[in-house]
Amino acid sequence: MASSTSSVLSIGLVMVLLTTFSLPAALAQLSVSYYASTCPSVFDTGCDGGILLSGGERNAPGNIAMVDRACGRSVVSCADILAISSRDSIVELGGPRARSDLPAFFHDLPRIIDIFQRKGFSEREMVALSGAHPIGQAQCSSFRDRFYSNTSNIDPAFAVSRQATCPRSGGDGNLAPLDPQSPGRFGNNYFQALMNRRGLLNSDQVLFNGGSTDSIVRTYANAASAFSTDFMNAMVKMGNLSPLTGTQGEIRTTCQRVN
Predict the structure, then answer these.
(1) What's the structural domain count of the chain?
(2) Of 100, 115, 119, 135, which shows the fewest CB atoms inside 10 Å?
(3) Where is heme b annotated to bind (predicted)?
(4) Would you say 156 is a known binding-site residue?
(5) Mean pLDDT confidence for 61-69
């Protein structure tokens, strides 16, 4: 659920991100088919070369010229690209058809609930969004304290395996999957792992540790369909958090900086 900017590596596209996942009519400001007329090939055959090597490949004259001819300049925004890549990566990893101001990996349950409630999310929606973690990994520096300081809510065998990955000192960049049961596969195994005290981050395990969200975790662990439905609805809601429309924003020519 939580991470610092350097701790969680995920398609991320995780939690994270402005998405356009199957928006109902009432929320249809964002649309997957928005560029059907202005740049018809951008998402299927013309300009969807994926994440290309920076410099040598992406900026090669032949490649960039073809993109400009097909799409024109300042047509497709970085937010659009992130939204589409988020949606497609979740689908490819087996999930239903996510924002960076998320809780930190060391936060306790009340703090996490408060952060989400400030954005208008219920506890159930918060837990559902946490289910995106199977497609992520975390660095040793973000979970070391959990496995050496207080191991009362950790499965002993799981603790041993993670300590092998993350020693008491050194190896800060060593990676471990956020979902040990089915890493890289979207589904409800994440919640089953929490019930077995196998949450990697403290902010994961607090979702099932005798608190108000225990029953929600239990529901999702036992009913994949309930999780999928709630996750999809929560992602749609997250994707509609204060989007910039009309002349409020800009279409960046380089994603890393404003024009």
Answers:
(1) 1
(2) 100
(3) 133
(4) no
(5) 57
Please give the DSSP secondary-structure letter assigned to residue 136: E
pLDDT at 222 (0 to 100): 97
C-alpha distances (whole Å) from 172 to each of 10, 59, 123, 151, 226 are: 17, 34, 32, 19, 36
pLDDT in tens, 133-156: 877 788 898 899 889 987 778 999
* Residue 124 CB partners (closer than 8 Å, separation 6+): 216, 230
**Where are any strands of DSSP class E within the chain?**
8-10, 136-139, 175-177
Is 133 assigned to a binding site?
Answer: yes
For residue 57, tell me if it sits in a domain: no
- Position 1 in a domain: no
Q: Is the pLDDT of residue 116 over 50?
A: yes
Give the tens place of pLDDT for each residue, 71-108. 655 566 666 666 667 667 666 655 554 444 556 666 77
Decide which of 165 and 253 is more confident.
Answer: 165
- The CATH number of the domain holding residue 218 is 1.10.420.10
Q: How far apart, in whole angstroms, are the C-alpha atoms of residue 104 and residue 14?
A: 14
Tell whether residue 107 is among the known ligand binding residues. Answer: no
The amino acid occupying position 122 is: S
pLDDT digits (tens, 9 = 90+) for 200-231: 988 899 999 999 999 999 999 999 999 999 99
First-to-last alpha carbon distance for the chain, in angstroms, is 33
3-state DSSP assignment of residue 57:
coil
Q: How far is CA 138 from the centre of its chain?
A: 13
Residue 181 lies in a domain: yes
Domain extent for 230: 8-18+97-239
